[in-house]
Amino acid sequence: MPNFSFVVFLSSYAANEFFNTAIMLLISYIGFAMSQTAIIALYRMNQHNVEIIPYTKNVYIVQIVSAIVICIIAAYIRINKGGFSFIDRDGRRRTKIFIKDNFRILIAVVVSILIFIIANIWILLSENPPYYTISLGLLVALLFLIYLSIKKDELDD
Question: What is the pTM of this model?
């Protein structure tokens, strides 16, 4: 529920459409989750399957490395003037959600949310979660969302 309220807040604060804000935030969440699971997988591989338990040194190391990686990626995107122009800064543009191109993104959003939920449940319920597999699944969802967002961006220009 907090994520939904964050989408509502950001769409009203930034004067963006709800649908476009949801796409932007979902790409961010999945990108962070994918990078963090990949970092955990690499860390566990190098530390011989060390346990990731909350409030321990290992978790803090993973969080610091995750934050650094995400900041580097964000700086790279910013320096190269990346981003999507369909996320309008000049005010709301009314677009119809249920047109052909948006419908594909809507399906991708639903599938990505399901992959995200399944990944989280898998991590919570498994004693030794397969972080590489989870990271790969999140990467596929992320790339698919980015691909469709780039297509949408090209159509809106």
Answer: 0.71
CA nearest to 38, candidates 8, 30, 101, 54? 30
Residue pLDDT, tens place only, 61-98 = 888 998 999 899 889 888 887 776 655 555 455 555 55
For residue 92, what are the contacts with CB-CB under 8 A and spacing of at least 6?
15, 16, 17
**pLDDT (tens digit, 9 = 90+) per residue, 23-46?**
777 888 888 888 888 888 888 777
Amino acid (one-letter) located at 143: L
83 close to 77: Cβ distance less than 8 angstroms: yes
114, burial (CB in 10 Å: exposed 0-12, middle 13-18, buried 19+): exposed
Q: By CB neighbour count within 10 A (0-12 exposed, 13-18 middle, 19+ buried), where does 72 fall?
A: exposed
Distance CA 119, CA 111 (A): 12
Contact 131, 42 (CB under 8 A): no
Q: Which residue has the tokens 């990626």?
A: 73
Q: Cα(149)–Cα(157) distance, rounded to whole angstroms?
A: 12
